[in-house]
Write a structure and sequence with these properties.
Elements: H1 12-31, H2 35-50, E1 63-66, E2 73-80, E3 83-88, E4 96-99, E5 103-105
Antiparallel strand pairs: 1-2, 1-5, 2-3, 3-4
Helix pairs in contact: 1-2
Amino acid sequence: MENDKKYSAMTEHELRAEIGRIMEKARKAEQMGMVSEYAVYQRKAVMAQSFLIDPQTIQKDEIYRIDGDDGVFFRVDYLKGRFAWGYRLGGDLAIEALPIAMLKAVKEGK
């Protein structure tokens, strides 16, 4: 970030501008073959996008698709901040946290 403002203190406009800057850095890292740096920028963008989502739209005990992980579903046990804690279905049922921007309603389709 050019400024040291937390995502939680940013306006929607500032968040969208920050996401744009992060995605541009990710694009450049990808072009230069810097895979690790690209992944870091992608995660930063997802975190910033999570602050554009109302956490109340994520429901406890609901099942969501995981954006970027086709065919994998996630059951939310609880929310803490901008993270949904729960389990991937069909896996070893280990609890994990995902940024809420990664969760897509199953009803939205593919």
